[in-house]
Amino acid sequence: MADVATQPGQGAETSTRPGFVQRLFLHNITAKVAALPMIATVLVIFVGCTAWTIYYSFTNSRLLPRNDFVGFDQYVRLFGTNRWNISITNLLMYGSMSLVLTLTLGFLLAVLMDQKIRFESAFRTIMLYPFALSFIVTGLVWQWIMNPTLGLQGTMRNLGWTGFTFDWISNPRMVLFALLIAGLWQGVGFCMVLMLAGLRGVDEEIWKAARVDGIPTWRTYISVVLPMMRGVLVTSVVIIGSGIVRLYDLVVALTNGGPGISSEVPAKYVYDYMFGGGNIGQGLAASTMMLVTVMIIMVPWAYLEFGGKGRR
Amino acid sequence: MSQTATMTGTAPASSKSLEDGPRGERPKPFFTPKKIIIYTTLVFFSLYFLFPLYVMLVTSFKTMPEIRFGNIFALPNQINFDAWHRAWTSACTGLTCNGLSPGFWNSVKITIPSTIVSIFIAAVNGYALVNWRFRGSEIFFSILIFGSFIPYQVMLYPLVMITRELGIFGTLPGIIVIHTIFGMPILTLLFRNYFASLPQELFKAARVDGAGFWRIFFEIMLPMSLPIFVVALILQITGIWNDFLFGVVFAGTQNLPMTVQLNNIVNSAQGTPEYNVNMAATVLTGLVPLIIYFVSGKLFVRGVAAGAVKG
């Protein structure tokens, strides 16, 4: 029973020995009523809506949802659609680059910040402020900076460096890197803060021991400290990863999927089919695929966090 | 580093990186090669982080002829607030030309009630989860936390149907409910961890004195949870202000938040783009979270790290 410790005042209720059902509902009734918004959110939104979406992704719903089952047809069509395939390829490419670079740069900067430097809080303020800004603001600023004629490229050419090329935003082959620059600008500081908290959590004794053994600093970081930060690392991967899967606002603001469809992402596909294209079944199937992607990231984490309880 | 310089006699024992540099007193231990590399790297990255802010501000103060001259680094010839004025009052969002100010007020109207409602509900959740556990409460909490990782797009369409059914789709109450729902996991976690860290004796003593659920909540728990309230406030105000997706789907055309209107001004306006107006509008939209960020300082860090580093 989960509620042993906390109800010294429930004697009157328990003395009447109510049945199981009554106990389930009436026991602690105020707390249950107070927690109703949470219970409703969990049951109706997180469980109910998700189940609804999965269920209806197997139907032939177009403008309105309807119970016309077509099996995996929506998924077959999904993976037969060029735009979707480009979207997931982009997500995979952008996601892996973004994840690796965010973690690497975040860790590197955290290590540098951890060297008892001066102006630490100034540096932290500078690195983290983009995280306070929305993806829309981020996307629009970088769209302006990457403007081929008047932005960085034009400026450099006007200043005499005529061969300077920074046209990533209008170059289908490079547009993902444009997204990456903006995405990293927004997110690296956050990762750095997480990593720094992890580094600060490492026992000073470990450092002393490593120093006595004559292990070089960089080696201590990679072989000793990094494995000890497993918790922070895994959490960072999950947070950054699920953020990447949701990637939407940044694309809308920076490129709107262009040039052509070269920077489309799944979240935008879902939105456009659900609310723009009047093809709900496609949107639902695509969003179910997004859910599957998140699950693939989440399951190892859940296993580590909740499966391996003996480690804590 | 600083103490190693004074310990040169016993170098082998301390030696973090003292192999380089001469022995004896060093008047300026600041300029070791290691320090130079560290600071150079940090300054380089700082420039990357600061550059867009600089460009935004500089561009917003320029006139269009200055911008067409094509030097994104250059300071404006003179500080010119025209673009700011236009961005606020008359920039076009594709259909109307009222500038960003309606969006700003819409965002205020969305953010304030959403923040209050979501924090209040989450505080009650956290309190119930810690002090009034009931059968299944931990399971609900686990699903809630897992739910925060489900992509919003998965729940978007059914939510549209639900809110439409309730008659709040495309209205202020609708968007407030949506923000309350999606703010719930992180905020509940925040309050749960905070209440769990308070001494349980307080609660038990109040219980013995016969205080009930709400009385303990309002008279004991709330007054003690000011610090976590501030963190939650920062988290929610910036989060809701920066939201785009929910605003565009649920707020309705009358209540479109600032981010949506900003995007419309920049990305769907007709005619020649006015980059100074665009940048002024962008700064204006970023101003609220930026002010909160700079004022709150370390609390912001605590807020964003709250979900990640478990308390």
Automatic annotation (TrEMBL), chain A:
Record Gene3D superfamilies: MetI-like
Record keywords: Cell membrane, Membrane, Transmembrane, Transmembrane helix, Transport
Lineage: Bacteria, Pseudomonadati, Pseudomonadota, Alphaproteobacteria, Hyphomicrobiales
Protein name per the record: Glucose/mannose transport system permease protein
Tagged with keyword Transport: yes
Transmembrane keyword on record: yes
Alphabetized InterPro entries for the sequence: ABC_transporter_permease (IPR051393), MetI-like (IPR000515), MetI-like_sf (IPR035906)
Cell compartment(s), UniProt: Cell membrane
Gene Ontology CC annotations of this record: plasma membrane
UniProtKB/TrEMBL annotation, chain B:
GO biological process: transmembrane transport
Region feature Disordered, mapped onto this chain: 1-27
Residue ranges of every copy of the ABC transmembrane type-1 domain listed in the record: 104-296
Pfam families on file: BPD_transp_1
Biased composition (Polar residues): 1-16
Composition-biased stretches (Basic and acidic residues): 17-27
Signal peptide residue numbers: none
Membrane topology recorded in Swiss-Prot or TrEMBL: Multi-pass membrane protein
Cellular component GO terms, alphabetical: plasma membrane
Keyword Transport: yes
Transmembrane spans: 36-57, 110-130, 139-160, 166-191, 212-237, 277-295
Keyword tags: Membrane, Transmembrane, Transmembrane helix, Transport
Stored SUPFAM superfamilies: MetI-like
Compartments where located: Cell membrane
Family annotation (PANTHER family): ABC TRANSPORTER PERMEASE PROTEIN, GLUCOSE IMPORT SYSTEM PERMEASE PROTEIN GLCU
Family named by the database record: Belongs to the binding-protein-dependent transport system permease family.
Record-given protein name: Glucose/mannose transport system permease protein
Species name: Devosia crocina
Lineage of origin: Bacteria, Pseudomonadati, Pseudomonadota, Alphaproteobacteria, Hyphomicrobiales
